[in-house]
């Protein structure tokens, strides 16, 4: 079976934009104080722009998904297939919920720079939009109690991964601020945000690991582990786990080595070297995120081993 690259590409784009929208708005709530949000990060253009992109990619995705399900070419758009998908399936209902949630989140993003309530609305509604992706993958494939467990695990996995992606975006924007706008107050804020993500990051990573194990058990099954590397799905999953392990290693270095070194260098007045190290580490971690999201977009188009039994 050949890979459906247009569908994989738009799934990847949706994971990036929805994770960024949810994670960055959440980071603004727990990582920054009210008076700091407007000055530390340009929330309005980032959140509003990401929301509009997510709306665009959602529109493209429904057309591609309908074409794939109908066995038709993606262009011209098969309006009948799209109509059937939207009216006769849980995926269609989830898409409608996503579009409404993204509209609300995008409107709230226009006034979210310094105010807690609009930023909270962005986080809530973008979280709902991100959660709807569970109905476009394997999370909705099971029925009964198993189906609800799988769906819940998939939603939690999406939200925790989105929180990590958004935190990386927020921290990356903080450490890459131009030198002419980097003063002592910004350096102190950057350190506090880096240090403060420690507890949140631990919760996020724990949730990712637990829900990932649940999903692996339901999608792969213990009996398929010995032959996992013989299938495309298995090889992509192994690659994803290797990249995730690399991210966990980098996150540990950031928390226990690079962030304390940054604090010491700021106190000594010579922070440029430590800041470059943090930038490099976060850039590598972000590259791993991009690769993982490509793999996730691809995996969602393949049949998992457990369903082939």
From TrEMBL:
Residue ranges of domain Copper resistance protein D in the record: 192-299
Q: Which Pfam families match?
A: CopD (PF05425)
**Does the record carry Transmembrane helix as a key word?**
yes
Note the coiled coil stretches, chain numbering: none
* Alphabetical GO biological process terms: copper ion transport
Q: State the superkingdom.
A: Bacteria
Q: Where in the cell is it found?
A: Cell membrane
Cellular component annotations (GO), alphabetically ordered = plasma membrane
What transmembrane ranges does the database entry give? 12-32, 52-75, 95-112, 119-135, 155-175, 196-220, 232-253, 282-300
Q: Which UniProt keywords apply?
A: Cell membrane, Membrane, Transmembrane, Transmembrane helix
**NCBIfam families in alphabetical order:** copper_CopD
- Listed name of the protein: Putative copper resistance protein D
Native organism taxonomy? Bacteria, Pseudomonadati, Pseudomonadota, Alphaproteobacteria, Sphingomonadales
């Amino acid at each position: 079976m050949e890979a459906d690259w247009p569908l994989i590409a738009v799934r990847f784009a949706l994971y990036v934009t929805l994770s960024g929208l949810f994670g960055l708005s959440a980071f603004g709530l727990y990582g920054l104080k009210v008076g700091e949000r407007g000055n530390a990060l340009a929330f309005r253009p980032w959140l509003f722009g990401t929301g509009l992109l997510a709306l665009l990619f959602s529109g493209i995705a429904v057309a591609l998904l309908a074409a794939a399900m109908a066995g038709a070419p993606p262009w011209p758009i098969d309006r009948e297939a799209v109509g059937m998908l939207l009216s006769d399936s849980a995926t269609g209902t989830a898409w409608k919920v996503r579009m409404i949630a993204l509209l609300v989140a995008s409107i709230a993003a226009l006034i979210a720079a310094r105010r807690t309530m609009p930023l909270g609305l962005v986080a809530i509604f973008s979280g709902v939009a991100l959660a709807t992706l569970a109905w476009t993958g394997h999370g909705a494939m099971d029925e009964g109690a198993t189906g609800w467990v799988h769906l819940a695990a998939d939603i939690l996995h999406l939200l925790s991964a989105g929180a990590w992606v958004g935190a990386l975006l927020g921290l990356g924007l903080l450490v890459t601020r131009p030198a002419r706008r980097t003063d002592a107050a910004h350096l102190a804020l950057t350190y506090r945000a880096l240090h403060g993500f420690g507890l949140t990051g631990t919760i996020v990573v724990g949730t990712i690991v637990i829900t990932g194990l649940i999903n692996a058990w339901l999608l792969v099954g213990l009996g398929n582990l010995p032959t996992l590397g013989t299938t495309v799905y298995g090889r992509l999953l192994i690659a994803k786990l290797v990249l995730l392990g690399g991210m966990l290693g980098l996150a540990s270095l950031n928390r226990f080595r690079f962030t304390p070194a940054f604090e010491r260098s700021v106190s000594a007045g010579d922070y440029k070297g430590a800041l470059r190290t943090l930038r490099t580490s976060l850039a590598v971690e972000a590259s791993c995120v991009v690769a993982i999201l490509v793999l996730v977009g691809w995996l969602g188009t393949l049949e998992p081993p457990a369903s082939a039994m």
